[in-house]
TrEMBL record:
<feature type="transmembrane region" description="Helical">
    <location>
        <begin position="12"/>
        <end position="29"/>
    </location>
</feature>
<feature type="transmembrane region" description="Helical">
    <location>
        <begin position="157"/>
        <end position="182"/>
    </location>
</feature>
<keyword id="KW-0472">Membrane</keyword>
<feature type="transmembrane region" description="Helical">
    <location>
        <begin position="203"/>
        <end position="225"/>
    </location>
</feature>
<keyword id="KW-0812">Transmembrane</keyword>
<dbReference type="InterPro" id="IPR036374">
    <property type="entry name" value="OxRdtase_Mopterin-bd_sf"/>
</dbReference>
<keyword id="KW-1003">Cell membrane</keyword>
<dbReference type="InterPro" id="IPR011577">
    <property type="entry name" value="Cyt_b561_bac/Ni-Hgenase"/>
</dbReference>
<dbReference type="Pfam" id="PF00174">
    <property type="entry name" value="Oxidored_molyb"/>
</dbReference>
<feature type="transmembrane region" description="Helical">
    <location>
        <begin position="245"/>
        <end position="266"/>
    </location>
</feature>
<protein>
    <submittedName>
        <fullName>Oxidoreductase</fullName>
    </submittedName>
</protein>
<dbReference type="InterPro" id="IPR016174">
    <property type="entry name" value="Di-haem_cyt_TM"/>
</dbReference>
<feature type="domain" description="Cytochrome b561 bacterial/Ni-hydrogenase">
    <location>
        <begin position="6"/>
        <end position="235"/>
    </location>
</feature>
<feature type="transmembrane region" description="Helical">
    <location>
        <begin position="91"/>
        <end position="112"/>
    </location>
</feature>
<feature type="domain" description="Oxidoreductase molybdopterin-binding">
    <location>
        <begin position="327"/>
        <end position="472"/>
    </location>
</feature>
<dbReference type="GO" id="GO:0022904">
    <property type="term" value="P:respiratory electron transport chain"/>
</dbReference>
<keyword id="KW-1133">Transmembrane helix</keyword>
């Protein structure tokens, strides 16, 4: 074999790419485990999935929520495994950021150095040659290389598809699952057929990557591991024995990084939340925080049913209020404000500025639905109480006790959520007391719930009875900015 002329930058990025892609795949499997079902429609109706990766059967005789549908995948295949969605999200988005930056440099260098010719077909004549190569492979023989090139025809087409089609496809379908992007650009989501179409296509892209990896490794094995790894380590076919040893050492290092990431996540999740979260949140604030929701789905798009996430309060006090249509319920709004207020449901309804919006709900687990929500814009309430200059966040306290929702190891306690003050003034940030033209149902947060359409669903606290404007949340709960952030290490800012 002759020199394959692999420049140093290409060789380095090849191995770094292996690390990022495998981290993305394992953490993506962790995210899928949280709702291991795929749909072709945005209402995510139970039983209508086209694919499922769980044996669980949900009961028909009692209320269940989507937390009950979670699967616990083993750390060998999922990062970190053990039903740790918060950790999975941190690793997935951190790895995606690294992968995109690596890919951008790869594209730039491909075109600056002219290496793109290596992967891009020069003419349509490659198609019949590629078919001949497939026939040759099926006969357990190796086809000839293209003249003056390191690949045969089918290999060149495959690399072109992966580099210029599949990788961008995964990025674009991943972006279509962001509530901030879906809220600001509803038309973009519809280009993919809807949010669940994008999620399903993203999964099929994952399958395509796995198939490519399996075939790629098989081809390297059959062509000759030593010579080909020498080309990808030294840039030419030399020192094949050393190249084989070095390639195995690099693979061992990548496996060791995966093992370290898994152990770190399972043993010190707060540290992972803090370190990786600082990177991911910085990217979110720059790219996604400026986006405002502009959704207005037609009434015909409203989902016939809306999945439940989180079980309603079980206290006697709440049940008594519910029986009496919440006439005794009060919303206390205070903290760092000039004018603290206490409002009953009638007073809340009487506030000027009632707003109705038909929007797509994004659960952090992956399911969606379209609903109509009516209530008072949170900005109107802020106008009433007048936050002080030092107020930076808003804390929503609820009547929900998480002893009913989470495993005992996660702890119970009052559910609360914190969000940045700037989100109060987003156009479709709403305190909703009606859903689909009727009083808010108990299972969806009655008498009052939050809607923040650029965030995923768990930030939209339900069963609210107190709102506090604050300048810091370090002293609330465990100081991470919400019950789920405290106990299951979710992200505080969730535009994606």
């Amino acid at each position: 074999m002759t020199s394959l002329d692999y420049p140093a930058w290409l060789r380095i990025e090849h191995w770094v790419n292996v690390l990022f892609v495998t981290l993305i795949i394992r953490s993506g499997i962790e995210i899928l485990a949280t709702h291991p079902k795929l749909y072709w429609h945005d209402d995510s109706k139970p039983g209508s999935e086209w694919a499922r990766f769980t044996r669980k059967v949900m009961p028909r005789d009692r209320l269940y929520d989507t937390l009950d549908e979670e699967e616990d995948y083993h750390p060998v295949i999922a990062l970190p495994g053990r039903a740790q969605l918060g950790m999975g999200r941190h690793w997935h988005f951190f790895s995606v950021i690294g992968w995109i930056l690596l890919g951008l440099s790869y594209y730039v260098l491909l075109f600056v150095t002219g290496q793109w010719h290596r992967y891009w077909p020069a003419s349509w004549s490659i198609l019949p040659e590629a078919w001949d190569d497939i026939v040759t492979y099926l006969s357990f023989n190796l086809p000839p290389l293209l003249p003056g090139e390191p690949f045969d025809a089918i290999q060149k087409l495959t690399y072109a598809a992966v580099i210029f089609l599949l990788a961008p496809f995964q990025i674009l379908t991943g972006a279509a699952q962001s509530p901030a992007i879906a809220a600001r650009f509803p038309w973009y989501i519809q280009l993919w057929g809807g949010r669940q179409w994008a999620r399903s296509l993203h999964f099929l892209g994952l399958v395509a990557f796995l198939v490519f990896i399996a075939i790629h490794l098989s081809m390297v094995f059959f062509w000759g591991w030593g010579p080909l790894t020498a080309a990808m380590i030294f840039g030419s076919v030399r020192n094949t024995t050393l190249a084989t040893l070095l390639s195995l050492a690099i693979i061992a290092l990548i496996i060791a990084i995966h093992a370290a990431a898994t152990i770190w996540s399972l043993r010190r999740p707060r540290s992972v939340q803090r370190v990786l979260g600082s990177v991911v949140n910085a990217a979110r604030r720059i790219l996604l925080r400026p986006l405002d929701s502009r959704q207005s789905y037609p009434p015909s798009k409203i989902s016939p049913s809306h999945r439940v996430n989180g079980k309603p309060p079980a206290s006697i006090e709440y049940k008594v209020m519910a029986v009496h249509n919440f006439i005794d319920w009060r919303l206390r709004v205070g903290g760092l404000v000039e004018n603290p207020v206490t409002l009953d449901l009638a007073a809340l309804r009487a506030l000027n500025g009632r707003q109705t919006q038909r929007v797509l709900h994004h659960c952090v687990q992956g399911w969606t639905s379209i609903g109509e929500w009516s209530g008072v814009p949170l900005a109107r309430l802020a106008e009433l109480v007048r936050p002080l200059p030092q107020a930076r966040y808003v804390c929503f306290l609820t009547m929900q006790d998480n002893d009913r929702d989470e495993p005992a190891s996660h702890g119970g306690g009052q559910f609360y959520e914190v969000m940045d003050l700037e989100l109060v003034y987003k156009p479709q940030t709403l305190l909703a007391y009606e859903m689909n033209g009727r009083a808010l149902p108990i299972q969806h947060g009655a008498p009052l719930r939050l809607r923040v359409e650029t965030q995923v669903g768990f930030k939209m606290a339900k069963w609210i009875d107190q709102i506090e404007f604050i300048n810091d949340y370090a002293g609330i709960g465990k100081g991470a900015g919400g019950w789920r952030e405290d106990n299951v290490f979710y992200d505080k800012n969730v535009e994606i």
